[in-house]
Amino acid sequence: MSIELDKQILDAVRKKPGQKAKEIAITFGVERNIVNSALYRLKSKLKQDRTYRWFPRGDTEEDSQDQTHKKANTVLANLCRYYLDCLSHDDLGGVSEFATDKYDDPKYVELGVLPMFDEDENDPFATDEGGKLLGRVRRDRNKQIIYLGYPVRLNLIRSKKGWEGLFVEPILLFAFEDADSSYSRLTLADELPQINFRALRALSNAGDSNLMEEVIQIVDELGLANIEDDQPEIDDLLARLRVRIGIGKRIWILTN
Length: 256
Description:
Elements: H1 2-15, H2 21-28, H3 32-41, E1 46-48, E2 54-56, H4 75-87, E3 97-98, E4 108-111, H5 128-139, E5 146-158, E6 164-175, E7 194-195, H6 197-204, H7 208-222, H8 234-245, E8 251-255
Antiparallel strand pairs: 1-2, 3-6, 4-8, 5-6, 5-8, 6-7
């Protein structure tokens, strides 16, 4: 069936270039994740622009995939680089937590499924571990922020004195909305995720100035700065991120 569907999708994109995965999914009456899998299998024949629209390879369109790797040279882009360069002289921060805690009080919980794709709409804080984490955050006077981290890497750190340990470092951070009361269920904010500088720095081994350039490029490639009508669907964004960075699929809830 997948071979036949692949052929149908390829023909559909050739007949009508510039479609998004969700539009193709509606045409064939299948789930978007099935269409995304087919599109990525067809990447030798199809390509995707920065707004997540698909085109036959060889077509010319304004925002080709090759152009996303070129440095933007607009007034806004240059202003952003200047601003980010200023920030690079300060602590960029980010989220990074010990994988194990000597006080048995970890600042994260691992999930089995992304809440936005959970068909049963389970409360990610309904487990003993989730309830414990949420209770600790709500008792904290420092108003900690709770994030959904995905995908997540474990970073092995070795000190000059010989100590070593694993740190949990998500690539993308999805913020939870503040609840109206301490008894309300937390929900994910309806906004695109943030990039975790701490994880990206460890992946790139770059200095802060070069890291800023890489962040700008990734933001551009993932469409995180696209105008509202062209903002990516979360599953499209995650599929492109896995291709771009090439890491696993573990899911965590963390505090910072």
